[in-house]
Write a structure and sequence with these properties.
By secondary structure, this protein is of the alpha/beta class. The protein has 3 domains: 2-126 and 217-312, Rossmann fold, CATH 3.40.50.300; 136-214, Helicase, Ruva Protein, domain 3 (Orthogonal Bundle), CATH 1.10.8; 318-392, Ubiquitin-like (UB roll) (Roll), CATH 3.10.20.30. It is built from 13 helices and 14 strands. It is flat. The two termini are 25 Å apart. The chain binds guanosine-5'-diphosphate (GDP) and magnesium ion. Guanosine-5'-diphosphate (GDP) binds at residues 7, 9-15, 27-29, 34, 80, 223-224, 226-227, 250-252.
Protein backbone atom coordinates (compact mmCIF):
# COMPACT_ATOMS: atom_id res chain seq x y z
CA UNK A 1 0.00 0.00 0.00
CA UNK A 2 1.55 3.28 -1.09
CA UNK A 3 -0.07 6.68 -0.70
CA UNK A 4 1.28 9.49 -2.88
CA UNK A 5 1.15 13.07 -1.61
CA UNK A 6 0.91 15.33 -4.67
CA UNK A 7 0.27 18.95 -5.53
CA UNK A 8 2.10 22.03 -6.70
CA UNK A 9 4.98 23.59 -4.77
CA UNK A 10 4.47 25.39 -1.43
CA UNK A 11 1.00 24.10 -0.63
CA UNK A 12 2.22 22.16 2.42
CA UNK A 13 2.95 18.66 1.07
CA UNK A 14 6.16 18.24 3.06
CA UNK A 15 4.54 19.66 6.20
CA UNK A 16 1.69 17.18 5.87
CA UNK A 17 4.14 14.37 5.14
CA UNK A 18 6.26 15.29 8.12
CA UNK A 19 3.23 15.52 10.40
CA UNK A 20 1.98 12.12 9.25
CA UNK A 21 5.36 10.45 9.61
CA UNK A 22 7.28 12.74 11.94
CA UNK A 23 10.22 11.96 9.68
CA UNK A 24 12.88 14.59 9.17
CA UNK A 25 12.24 16.07 5.75
CA UNK A 26 13.17 19.50 4.54
CA UNK A 27 10.47 22.11 4.97
CA UNK A 28 11.23 25.21 3.01
CA UNK A 29 9.36 27.76 0.92
CA UNK A 30 11.73 27.52 -2.09
CA UNK A 31 10.36 25.91 -5.29
CA UNK A 32 11.58 22.38 -6.09
CA UNK A 33 13.01 21.72 -2.66
CA UNK A 34 11.75 18.16 -2.63
CA UNK A 35 14.13 16.87 -5.27
CA UNK A 36 14.25 13.31 -4.07
CA UNK A 37 10.89 11.83 -3.32
CA UNK A 38 10.58 11.09 0.34
CA UNK A 39 9.21 7.78 1.39
CA UNK A 40 8.07 7.24 4.93
CA UNK A 41 5.63 5.45 7.14
CA UNK A 42 2.33 7.07 8.08
CA UNK A 43 -0.21 5.60 10.47
CA UNK A 44 -3.90 4.94 9.94
CA UNK A 45 -5.96 5.28 13.11
CA UNK A 46 -8.32 2.43 13.99
CA UNK A 47 -9.95 1.02 17.10
CA UNK A 48 -7.53 -1.42 18.76
CA UNK A 49 -9.05 -4.78 19.74
CA UNK A 50 -7.16 -4.51 23.05
CA UNK A 51 -10.08 -2.63 24.63
CA UNK A 52 -12.67 -5.12 23.46
CA UNK A 53 -10.63 -8.11 24.69
CA UNK A 54 -9.64 -6.24 27.88
CA UNK A 55 -5.95 -6.85 27.27
CA UNK A 56 -2.89 -4.66 27.44
CA UNK A 57 -1.34 -4.79 23.98
CA UNK A 58 2.36 -4.74 23.03
CA UNK A 59 2.42 -3.28 19.52
CA UNK A 60 5.43 -4.15 17.40
CA UNK A 61 4.78 -2.75 13.91
CA UNK A 62 2.42 -0.04 15.12
CA UNK A 63 1.48 1.94 18.24
CA UNK A 64 -1.54 2.23 20.45
CA UNK A 65 -2.73 5.25 22.44
CA UNK A 66 -5.72 4.70 24.75
CA UNK A 67 -7.24 1.96 22.60
CA UNK A 68 -6.45 3.72 19.32
CA UNK A 69 -4.14 1.66 17.12
CA UNK A 70 -2.02 3.36 14.48
CA UNK A 71 -1.35 0.93 11.62
CA UNK A 72 1.47 1.58 9.14
CA UNK A 73 1.15 2.43 5.45
CA UNK A 74 3.85 3.71 3.14
CA UNK A 75 3.63 7.30 2.01
CA UNK A 76 5.52 9.22 -0.65
CA UNK A 77 6.08 12.97 -0.66
CA UNK A 78 6.23 13.67 -4.38
CA UNK A 79 8.12 16.62 -5.89
CA UNK A 80 5.97 19.70 -6.63
CA UNK A 81 3.92 19.58 -9.81
CA UNK A 82 3.66 22.49 -12.23
CA UNK A 83 1.33 22.88 -15.21
CA UNK A 84 3.00 21.31 -18.25
CA UNK A 85 4.76 18.62 -16.22
CA UNK A 86 3.84 15.98 -18.81
CA UNK A 87 5.84 18.04 -21.31
CA UNK A 88 8.81 18.00 -18.96
CA UNK A 89 8.28 21.34 -17.16
CA UNK A 90 9.64 21.61 -13.63
CA UNK A 91 10.52 18.14 -12.44
CA UNK A 92 7.79 16.93 -14.81
CA UNK A 93 8.49 13.40 -15.87
CA UNK A 94 10.30 12.59 -12.67
CA UNK A 95 7.19 13.59 -10.78
CA UNK A 96 4.95 11.48 -12.93
CA UNK A 97 7.28 8.53 -12.71
CA UNK A 98 7.06 8.64 -8.91
CA UNK A 99 3.32 8.24 -9.14
CA UNK A 100 3.37 4.92 -10.88
CA UNK A 101 3.45 2.86 -7.73
CA UNK A 102 0.94 4.93 -5.76
CA UNK A 103 -2.34 3.18 -4.95
CA UNK A 104 -4.07 6.43 -4.22
CA UNK A 105 -3.27 10.11 -4.09
CA UNK A 106 -3.62 12.83 -1.52
CA UNK A 107 -3.76 16.06 -3.50
CA UNK A 108 -2.76 18.92 -1.24
CA UNK A 109 -4.07 22.34 -2.30
CA UNK A 110 -3.51 25.71 -0.67
CA UNK A 111 -7.16 26.49 -0.01
CA UNK A 112 -6.33 30.04 1.10
CA UNK A 113 -5.42 30.92 -2.49
CA UNK A 114 -2.09 32.53 -1.56
CA UNK A 115 0.11 30.33 -3.77
CA UNK A 116 0.05 30.75 -7.56
CA UNK A 117 0.27 27.88 -10.03
CA UNK A 118 4.07 27.95 -10.03
CA UNK A 119 4.27 27.86 -6.24
CA UNK A 120 4.98 31.56 -5.70
CA UNK A 121 3.18 33.76 -3.14
CA UNK A 122 0.15 35.63 -4.43
CA UNK A 123 -3.36 36.62 -3.35
CA UNK A 124 -6.79 35.69 -4.62
CA UNK A 125 -5.69 32.59 -6.53
CA UNK A 126 -8.52 30.15 -7.25
CA UNK A 127 -7.62 26.71 -5.80
CA UNK A 128 -10.14 25.08 -8.17
CA UNK A 129 -7.52 25.65 -10.88
CA UNK A 130 -5.18 23.29 -9.05
CA UNK A 131 -7.66 20.45 -9.05
CA UNK A 132 -8.25 20.99 -12.76
CA UNK A 133 -4.59 21.20 -13.74
CA UNK A 134 -3.44 18.27 -11.63
CA UNK A 135 -6.14 16.05 -13.09
CA UNK A 136 -5.22 17.28 -16.54
CA UNK A 137 -1.52 16.52 -16.01
CA UNK A 138 -2.33 13.01 -14.83
CA UNK A 139 -4.61 12.42 -17.80
CA UNK A 140 -2.07 13.78 -20.30
CA UNK A 141 0.60 11.59 -18.75
CA UNK A 142 -1.41 8.38 -19.10
CA UNK A 143 -2.61 9.43 -22.55
CA UNK A 144 0.96 9.98 -23.75
CA UNK A 145 1.99 6.54 -22.51
CA UNK A 146 -0.96 4.70 -24.00
CA UNK A 147 -1.29 6.57 -27.29
CA UNK A 148 2.27 5.57 -28.26
CA UNK A 149 1.31 1.92 -28.20
CA UNK A 150 -2.41 2.00 -28.77
CA UNK A 151 -2.45 1.21 -32.48
CA UNK A 152 -0.14 -1.73 -32.00
CA UNK A 153 -2.19 -3.09 -29.08
CA UNK A 154 -5.34 -2.86 -31.17
CA UNK A 155 -3.63 -4.49 -34.16
CA UNK A 156 -2.36 -7.51 -32.26
CA UNK A 157 -5.64 -8.01 -30.38
CA UNK A 158 -8.44 -10.01 -31.92
CA UNK A 159 -11.77 -8.24 -32.39
CA UNK A 160 -12.83 -9.63 -29.04
CA UNK A 161 -12.57 -6.95 -26.37
CA UNK A 162 -11.17 -9.41 -23.88
CA UNK A 163 -7.83 -9.80 -25.61
CA UNK A 164 -7.53 -6.05 -26.06
CA UNK A 165 -8.07 -5.56 -22.32
CA UNK A 166 -5.40 -8.13 -21.49
CA UNK A 167 -2.84 -6.61 -23.85
CA UNK A 168 -3.55 -3.15 -22.51
CA UNK A 169 -3.24 -4.42 -18.93
CA UNK A 170 0.18 -5.81 -19.78
CA UNK A 171 1.18 -2.42 -21.16
CA UNK A 172 -0.08 -0.59 -18.06
CA UNK A 173 0.93 -2.99 -15.29
CA UNK A 174 3.94 -0.77 -14.51
CA UNK A 175 1.56 2.08 -13.68
CA UNK A 176 -0.24 0.01 -11.06
CA UNK A 177 -3.22 -0.44 -13.39
CA UNK A 178 -4.73 -3.92 -13.45
CA UNK A 179 -6.92 -5.93 -15.81
CA UNK A 180 -9.79 -5.50 -13.33
CA UNK A 181 -9.41 -1.73 -13.50
CA UNK A 182 -9.50 -1.88 -17.31
CA UNK A 183 -12.47 -4.23 -17.57
CA UNK A 184 -14.47 -2.23 -15.03
CA UNK A 185 -13.70 1.03 -16.86
CA UNK A 186 -14.61 -0.35 -20.30
CA UNK A 187 -17.94 -1.30 -18.80
CA UNK A 188 -18.60 1.92 -16.87
CA UNK A 189 -17.84 4.04 -19.96
CA UNK A 190 -20.07 1.89 -22.15
CA UNK A 191 -17.05 1.17 -24.37
CA UNK A 192 -17.13 -2.61 -23.95
CA UNK A 193 -19.59 -2.85 -26.85
CA UNK A 194 -17.37 -0.88 -29.23
CA UNK A 195 -14.43 -2.33 -31.16
CA UNK A 196 -11.28 -0.43 -30.07
CA UNK A 197 -10.35 -0.24 -33.78
CA UNK A 198 -13.20 2.24 -34.11
CA UNK A 199 -12.17 4.41 -31.17
CA UNK A 200 -11.11 7.93 -31.95
CA UNK A 201 -9.01 10.13 -29.69
CA UNK A 202 -12.17 11.21 -27.89
CA UNK A 203 -13.07 7.65 -26.86
CA UNK A 204 -9.51 6.91 -25.82
CA UNK A 205 -9.28 10.04 -23.67
CA UNK A 206 -12.63 9.38 -22.03
CA UNK A 207 -11.63 5.82 -21.29
CA UNK A 208 -8.24 6.79 -19.83
CA UNK A 209 -9.70 9.55 -17.66
CA UNK A 210 -12.13 7.10 -16.08
CA UNK A 211 -9.39 4.51 -15.77
CA UNK A 212 -7.20 7.02 -13.94
CA UNK A 213 -10.00 7.89 -11.53
CA UNK A 214 -10.47 4.23 -10.70
CA UNK A 215 -6.82 3.16 -10.52
CA UNK A 216 -5.46 6.32 -8.83
CA UNK A 217 -8.31 7.57 -6.65
CA UNK A 218 -7.72 11.01 -5.21
CA UNK A 219 -8.68 12.89 -2.07
CA UNK A 220 -8.22 16.64 -1.64
CA UNK A 221 -6.45 17.95 1.46
CA UNK A 222 -7.66 21.56 1.57
CA UNK A 223 -4.65 22.84 3.48
CA UNK A 224 -3.93 26.19 5.16
CA UNK A 225 -7.53 26.36 6.35
CA UNK A 226 -6.25 28.65 9.11
CA UNK A 227 -5.64 31.52 6.67
CA UNK A 228 -8.18 34.27 5.77
CA UNK A 229 -10.50 33.47 2.88
CA UNK A 230 -9.87 29.73 3.13
CA UNK A 231 -13.37 28.70 4.17
CA UNK A 232 -15.02 30.57 1.28
CA UNK A 233 -12.66 28.86 -1.17
CA UNK A 234 -13.39 25.53 0.48
CA UNK A 235 -17.14 25.89 -0.11
CA UNK A 236 -16.55 26.90 -3.73
CA UNK A 237 -14.23 23.96 -4.36
CA UNK A 238 -16.66 21.47 -2.85
CA UNK A 239 -19.44 22.86 -5.02
CA UNK A 240 -17.34 22.73 -8.17
CA UNK A 241 -16.12 19.15 -7.58
CA UNK A 242 -19.01 17.39 -5.85
CA UNK A 243 -17.63 13.94 -6.70
CA UNK A 244 -14.32 14.55 -4.86
CA UNK A 245 -13.74 14.07 -1.15
CA UNK A 246 -12.42 17.34 0.21
CA UNK A 247 -11.12 17.61 3.76
CA UNK A 248 -10.11 20.94 5.31
CA UNK A 249 -6.81 20.72 7.13
CA UNK A 250 -4.01 22.56 8.79
CA UNK A 251 -0.80 20.59 8.37
CA UNK A 252 1.19 23.15 10.31
CA UNK A 253 -1.03 22.76 13.38
CA UNK A 254 -0.89 18.97 13.22
CA UNK A 255 2.90 19.07 13.01
CA UNK A 256 3.08 21.44 15.99
CA UNK A 257 0.77 19.22 18.04
CA UNK A 258 2.69 16.05 17.26
CA UNK A 259 6.00 17.69 18.03
CA UNK A 260 4.65 19.05 21.31
CA UNK A 261 3.28 15.62 22.19
CA UNK A 262 6.61 14.00 21.38
CA UNK A 263 8.40 16.42 23.69
CA UNK A 264 5.97 15.59 26.48
CA UNK A 265 4.44 19.07 26.51
CA UNK A 266 0.94 17.84 25.77
CA UNK A 267 -0.99 14.63 25.43
CA UNK A 268 -2.49 14.47 21.96
CA UNK A 269 -3.93 11.59 19.99
CA UNK A 270 -3.62 12.37 16.25
CA UNK A 271 -7.08 12.99 14.85
CA UNK A 272 -8.58 14.17 18.15
CA UNK A 273 -10.44 17.44 18.63
CA UNK A 274 -8.55 18.26 21.82
CA UNK A 275 -5.30 17.82 23.73
CA UNK A 276 -4.25 17.97 27.36
CA UNK A 277 -1.53 20.30 28.51
CA UNK A 278 1.18 18.62 30.55
CA UNK A 279 4.05 21.07 30.81
CA UNK A 280 4.47 24.22 28.71
CA UNK A 281 5.90 27.72 29.08
CA UNK A 282 3.84 30.85 28.50
CA UNK A 283 4.67 31.28 24.80
CA UNK A 284 3.97 27.62 24.07
CA UNK A 285 0.69 27.85 25.96
CA UNK A 286 -0.36 30.82 23.82
CA UNK A 287 0.54 29.05 20.56
CA UNK A 288 -1.34 25.92 21.61
CA UNK A 289 -4.35 27.97 22.68
CA UNK A 290 -4.49 29.46 19.16
CA UNK A 291 -4.44 26.00 17.58
CA UNK A 292 -7.19 24.94 19.94
CA UNK A 293 -9.50 27.88 19.25
CA UNK A 294 -8.72 28.51 15.54
CA UNK A 295 -8.51 24.91 14.35
CA UNK A 296 -9.63 22.17 16.74
CA UNK A 297 -12.74 23.94 18.09
CA UNK A 298 -13.71 25.26 14.65
CA UNK A 299 -13.09 22.24 12.45
CA UNK A 300 -13.19 19.33 14.91
CA UNK A 301 -9.56 18.32 14.20
CA UNK A 302 -6.58 19.49 12.15
CA UNK A 303 -7.91 17.22 9.36
CA UNK A 304 -4.54 15.60 8.71
CA UNK A 305 -5.26 12.22 10.29
CA UNK A 306 -8.69 12.29 8.71
CA UNK A 307 -7.18 12.77 5.25
CA UNK A 308 -5.03 9.66 5.64
CA UNK A 309 -7.81 7.59 7.19
CA UNK A 310 -10.24 8.63 4.49
CA UNK A 311 -7.72 7.78 1.75
CA UNK A 312 -6.90 4.32 3.11
CA UNK A 313 -10.17 3.20 4.67
CA UNK A 314 -12.59 5.33 2.62
CA UNK A 315 -11.22 5.57 -0.93
CA UNK A 316 -9.27 2.32 -1.03
CA UNK A 317 -11.61 0.48 1.35
CA UNK A 318 -8.64 -1.23 2.96
CA UNK A 319 -9.05 -3.33 6.08
CA UNK A 320 -6.78 -3.47 9.11
CA UNK A 321 -6.27 -6.95 10.54
CA UNK A 322 -4.43 -8.40 13.53
CA UNK A 323 -2.70 -11.76 12.99
CA UNK A 324 -1.66 -13.63 16.15
CA UNK A 325 0.02 -16.97 16.90
CA UNK A 326 -2.01 -17.86 20.00
CA UNK A 327 -5.77 -17.51 19.54
CA UNK A 328 -6.47 -17.43 23.28
CA UNK A 329 -3.82 -15.03 24.54
CA UNK A 330 -3.76 -13.12 21.21
CA UNK A 331 0.04 -13.14 21.27
CA UNK A 332 2.83 -13.75 18.80
CA UNK A 333 5.37 -16.49 19.51
CA UNK A 334 7.30 -14.10 21.77
CA UNK A 335 4.29 -13.30 23.95
CA UNK A 336 3.49 -9.85 22.54
CA UNK A 337 -0.25 -9.16 22.72
CA UNK A 338 -1.80 -8.04 19.40
CA UNK A 339 1.66 -7.24 18.01
CA UNK A 340 0.86 -6.28 14.43
CA UNK A 341 -1.83 -4.24 12.75
CA UNK A 342 -1.66 -4.94 9.03
CA UNK A 343 -3.32 -2.82 6.37
CA UNK A 344 -4.62 -5.03 3.55
CA UNK A 345 -6.28 -4.06 0.26
CA UNK A 346 -10.03 -4.35 -0.13
CA UNK A 347 -11.17 -7.86 -1.06
CA UNK A 348 -8.05 -9.74 0.02
CA UNK A 349 -8.29 -13.21 1.51
CA UNK A 350 -6.76 -14.78 4.57
CA UNK A 351 -4.39 -16.62 2.22
CA UNK A 352 -3.17 -13.26 0.88
CA UNK A 353 -2.49 -12.24 4.48
CA UNK A 354 -0.59 -15.49 5.11
CA UNK A 355 1.65 -14.78 2.09
CA UNK A 356 2.12 -11.19 3.22
CA UNK A 357 3.38 -12.36 6.64
CA UNK A 358 5.76 -14.88 5.08
CA UNK A 359 5.79 -16.78 1.79
CA UNK A 360 6.34 -20.02 3.72
CA UNK A 361 3.25 -19.39 5.85
CA UNK A 362 1.33 -18.84 2.64
CA UNK A 363 2.65 -22.01 1.01
CA UNK A 364 1.95 -24.12 4.08
CA UNK A 365 -1.43 -22.56 4.86
CA UNK A 366 -3.83 -25.14 6.34
CA UNK A 367 -6.61 -23.01 7.81
CA UNK A 368 -7.16 -20.07 10.11
CA UNK A 369 -9.16 -19.26 13.20
CA UNK A 370 -11.30 -16.21 13.86
CA UNK A 371 -10.24 -15.30 17.41
CA UNK A 372 -13.59 -13.72 18.28
CA UNK A 373 -15.85 -16.63 17.37
CA UNK A 374 -13.26 -19.48 17.30
CA UNK A 375 -14.70 -20.36 13.88
CA UNK A 376 -12.39 -22.04 11.38
CA UNK A 377 -11.67 -20.04 8.23
CA UNK A 378 -10.72 -21.48 4.84
CA UNK A 379 -8.15 -19.89 2.55
CA UNK A 380 -10.83 -18.11 0.50
CA UNK A 381 -12.11 -16.23 3.55
CA UNK A 382 -12.33 -12.50 2.79
CA UNK A 383 -10.74 -10.42 5.52
CA UNK A 384 -12.97 -8.00 7.39
CA UNK A 385 -11.92 -4.77 9.05
CA UNK A 386 -10.44 -5.35 12.56
CA UNK A 387 -10.35 -9.15 12.22
CA UNK A 388 -8.11 -10.90 14.75
CA UNK A 389 -6.94 -14.17 13.21
CA UNK A 390 -4.61 -17.04 13.86
CA UNK A 391 -3.17 -18.75 10.81
CA UNK A 392 -2.39 -22.46 11.08
CA UNK A 393 0.37 -23.59 8.75
N1 LIG B 1 -0.69 28.91 7.31
C1 LIG B 1 -0.29 27.67 7.01
N2 LIG B 1 0.91 27.46 6.43
C2 LIG B 1 1.28 26.20 6.15
C3 LIG B 1 0.44 25.09 6.44
N3 LIG B 1 1.10 23.96 6.04
C4 LIG B 1 2.27 24.36 5.53
N4 LIG B 1 2.40 25.70 5.59
C5 LIG B 1 3.56 26.52 5.14
O1 LIG B 1 3.60 26.55 3.73
C6 LIG B 1 4.97 26.62 3.26
C7 LIG B 1 5.27 25.48 2.31
O2 LIG B 1 5.18 24.25 2.98
P1 LIG B 1 5.87 22.90 2.45
O3 LIG B 1 5.37 21.81 3.31
O4 LIG B 1 7.34 23.05 2.30
O5 LIG B 1 5.20 22.84 0.99
P2 LIG B 1 5.51 21.86 -0.26
O6 LIG B 1 6.35 22.64 -1.20
O7 LIG B 1 4.14 21.61 -0.85
O8 LIG B 1 6.15 20.63 0.24
C8 LIG B 1 5.84 26.54 4.54
O9 LIG B 1 6.19 27.84 4.88
C9 LIG B 1 4.88 25.95 5.57
O10 LIG B 1 5.21 26.31 6.88
C10 LIG B 1 -0.83 25.33 7.07
O11 LIG B 1 -1.61 24.44 7.34
N5 LIG B 1 -1.12 26.65 7.33
MG1 LIG C 1 7.99 19.81 -0.30
Amino acid sequence: MLIGVIGKTNVGKSTLFKALTLAEVEISPRPFTTIKPNRGIAYVRVRCPCTEFKLKCNPVNSFCIDGNRFAPVEILDVAGLVPGAHLGRGLGNKFLDDLRQADCLIHVVDISGTTDENGNPTTGYDPCNDVRFVEQELDEWIFSIVSQHFDRIVRVSSIKGEEFAKNLARQLSGLGISLDHITATLHSCGLDEMDPKDWGEEELRKFLKNLRKLAKPMIIAANKIDLPGATQNLERLKKEFPELRVIPCCAEAELALRQAARKGMIKYIPGDDHFEVIKVDEAQARALELIDSKILKRFGSTGVQEVLNEAVLGLLKCVVVFPVADEHKLTDTKGNVLPDAIVMPNGTTILDLAYKIHSMIGERFVRAVDCRSSKLLGKEYKLRHLDVVKIIS
